[in-house]
Amino acid sequence: MAELLWERGYAATSPRDVMSRAGVGQGSMYHHFTGKHQLAVEALTAVARDMTAAASPLDGDGSPLERMKRYLALPRPGTLGCRVGRMTQDPQAVTDPELRTVVATAFDTMLDRWEHAITDAVAAGELPADTDPGDLARTLAAVIQGGYVLARARGEQQPMDAAVRGALALLDAARTAARGEH
Amino acid sequence: MAELLWERGYAATSPRDVMSRAGVGQGSMYHHFTGKHQLAVEALTAVARDMTAAASPLDGDGSPLERMKRYLALPRPGTLGCRVGRMTQDPQAVTDPELRTVVATAFDTMLDRWEHAITDAVAAGELPADTDPGDLARTLAAVIQGGYVLARARGEQQPMDAAVRGALALLDAARTAARGEH
DNA sequence: GTCTATACGAGGATAGAC
DNA sequence: GTCTATCCTCGTATAGAC
């Protein structure tokens, strides 16, 4: 289910698809799960756990700004899209309260990590003193999510990488601006 | 069809939905259109035309950086999502060559306008001389597209606005950095 | 041009045998 | 626990009458 959720989204994935990919019969599936909904909630929860775990660079070693740049520069399969962010455009998924909660929580966790790193960077003088950590966190998370959109629109990885490079350049410019402050 | 494409996406919209919203019978619809596919292509093409028309501030009056900021700050209904970018996550839409072309072309047009404005801003000394217009164009387009994703994840407008504010702040920082160059 | 009738497969799930 | 049979609705489209 996790795979199909990534490839096709929630609405476009049928229980039959899941069974056939898992190689099990109907009886088995409906014995262990109540239906498509539960299948999706459990799969997406696991995926979200993985995703937030992958954000470790933000809490790792190095100066705060270095950590932010390292996380931004992580390889991302642009044309495949974000396994969590994807749900955001799926009408049935966004409508479903449980699924939406899983997605929202995952993003909240990510944004929290961003905010911490940004706050540290401001304190270290690596970013301008008047930087709003909450705003910048959302900007950088949006660059990544938007990078997926642009990459999928063209069916190429390049737009994702370009978007990230542009963000890295802006962060560098912000650092030189911060240095001129004192 | 354009409305439903926005609200539910391509896969989740059925010809029946379209007929019922338009208040026409089956015969009428299939008399004027070959089917769901053509309906979507024509609707999305019209929407894309509107969208690129709305990007006029990028070519308008004022200094290049001002124009960029003005366009970024345009009001955007975050929780509704982007009518064009949305298609990007729709498995059936991205798979469809014609629909994907419409989406890709719309983004290419937008990115072109961004690149021109950015190039002008660099020439005017409003952005650092080593700015890559292609990269930054994709970064800023990604902020908007990603802003939609974050807003929909929470079902609130606020993340979109925050992401844009953060981008505006980064552009300002880049301008002060550019001023220190000479 | 527009309507109603019809077709057939897929989606989602239940029933009950083994 | 797993399998097959079965159910009903929806999606997508065609046929043919008015």
Describe this structure in words.
Chains A, B: Keywords: DNA-binding, Transcription, Transcription regulation. Chains A, B: It comes from Nocardiopsis flavescens. Chains A, B: Residues 1-51 form the HTH tetR-type domain. Chains A, B: Residues 14-33 bind DNA. 2 copies of one chain form a homodimer. Chain A is mostly helical. The first copy, chain A, has helices spanning 2-8, 15-22, 26-32, 36-53, 64-72, 91-95, 97-123, 133-154, 158-179. The first copy, chain A, has a single domain (51-179), classed as Tetracycline Repressor, domain 2. Helices cover 69% and strands 0% of the residues of chain A. The interface between A and B is large, with 58 and 60 residues.
Shape of chain A: elongated
At the fold tier of CATH, the topology name of chain A is Tetracycline Repressor, domain 2
* Total domain modules of chain A: 1
**What is the fourth-level CATH superfamily of chain A?**
Tetracycline Repressor, domain 2
Characterize the biggest β-sheet of chain A.
none
CATH-level-2 architecture of chain A: Orthogonal Bundle
Q: Helical segment tally of chain A?
A: 9
Q: Termini distance of chain A? A: 54 Å
Structural class of chain A: mainly alpha
Task: Round the mean pLDDT of chain A to the nearest integer and report it.
Answer: 96
Count every beta strand of chain A, where a strand is a DSSP E run of 2 or more residues. 0
Count interface residues per chain for the largest interface: A-B, 58 and 60 residues
**CATH class descriptor of chain A:** Mainly Alpha
Which consecutive residue ranges of chain A, at least 5 long each, have pLDDT under 50?
A: none
Strand content of chain A: under 5%
Q: Rounded to an integer, what's the Rg of chain A over CA atoms?
A: 19 Å
Helix content of chain A: 55-70%
* Quaternary structure annotation: homodimer
N-to-C order of helices and strands of chain A: HHHHHHHHH
GO molecular function (chains A, B): DNA binding
Protein name (chains A, B): DNA-binding transcriptional regulator, AcrR family
Keywords (chains A, B): DNA-binding, Transcription, Transcription regulation
Organism (chains A, B): Nocardiopsis flavescens
